[in-house]
Amino acid sequence: IGNSSVLTCPPKSNITMVTWKISPKVGGPCTVGYRADQNKTDRTNCSDSMNWKFRPDRDPALEIRQMGIAHEGNYTCEVVATEGNFHKTYHLTVRVPPRLTLYCDDHGNPVCEAAAGKPAARISWVLESNSTSREEGHDNGTVTVLSKFAAHSTNVTNITCLVSHPAGNQSKSIAC
C-alpha cells in the first residue's frame, strides 16, 4: 500500500491499439486506451493514479501510483497488432501492514494488537503462554487481531509480542 506498481503488456511491434480494462473490487470499471492510427490516448472513469508508464506506442505498461485497497481487482491488457490480438490479465491484491500496539490491561496482562492489516496478521509470544486471540474484520477488507498473554508463572517481567505478516514482521516488548 502506498507504493507504485507497473503492469506490463505483451510487447509487440506494429501495435494498432492497446486497451487496459480495469475491474476493481469496489467501484465501477474503467479503461485506458491508445490508438496508433490517431496517436491518441483516452481514459474513461479511471483515477489520476492510473496512467501509461511510458509512451504507449513504445511500451504499453500501466503504472498505478500510490496504491491503495481501492486498486484491488482485475487488470486486463488487450493488444491489437499486425501479429494478432494478445491479452494478459492480472489479479491485483494489495497488502496492508498492520499497526502494532502492545499494552497492559487492567489485570496486568500484556495485550498485543495488530490493527488493520491485510491479510490478517499472526501473533505469537516469545514465551509459551495460554494466549487468547480474536479477530475483527473491517469494511475495507483489513483485519485487526488482538492477543492477550496469560503467563504460566508470575515472575515474568518482560514479554515480547511477535507479529508475522506478508508485508513485514514486527515485534515489541513490555513489562506489566
TrEMBL record:
<dbReference type="GO" id="GO:0009897">
    <property type="term" value="C:external side of plasma membrane"/>
</dbReference>
<comment type="similarity">
    <text>Belongs to the CD200R family.</text>
</comment>
<dbReference type="Pfam" id="PF07686">
    <property type="entry name" value="V-set"/>
</dbReference>
<dbReference type="InterPro" id="IPR013783">
    <property type="entry name" value="Ig-like_fold"/>
</dbReference>
<protein>
    <submittedName>
        <fullName>MOR1A protein</fullName>
    </submittedName>
</protein>
<dbReference type="GO" id="GO:0038023">
    <property type="term" value="F:signaling receptor activity"/>
</dbReference>
<keyword id="KW-1015">Disulfide bond</keyword>
<keyword id="KW-0472">Membrane</keyword>
<dbReference type="InterPro" id="IPR040012">
    <property type="entry name" value="CD200R"/>
</dbReference>
<keyword id="KW-1133">Transmembrane helix</keyword>
<dbReference type="InterPro" id="IPR013106">
    <property type="entry name" value="Ig_V-set"/>
</dbReference>
<keyword id="KW-0812">Transmembrane</keyword>
<dbReference type="GO" id="GO:0150077">
    <property type="term" value="P:regulation of neuroinflammatory response"/>
</dbReference>
<dbReference type="Pfam" id="PF08205">
    <property type="entry name" value="C2-set_2"/>
</dbReference>
<feature type="domain" description="Ig-like">
    <location>
        <begin position="60"/>
        <end position="175"/>
    </location>
</feature>
<keyword id="KW-0325">Glycoprotein</keyword>
<dbReference type="InterPro" id="IPR007110">
    <property type="entry name" value="Ig-like_dom"/>
</dbReference>
<dbReference type="InterPro" id="IPR013162">
    <property type="entry name" value="CD80_C2-set"/>
</dbReference>
<keyword id="KW-0675">Receptor</keyword>
<dbReference type="InterPro" id="IPR036179">
    <property type="entry name" value="Ig-like_dom_sf"/>
</dbReference>
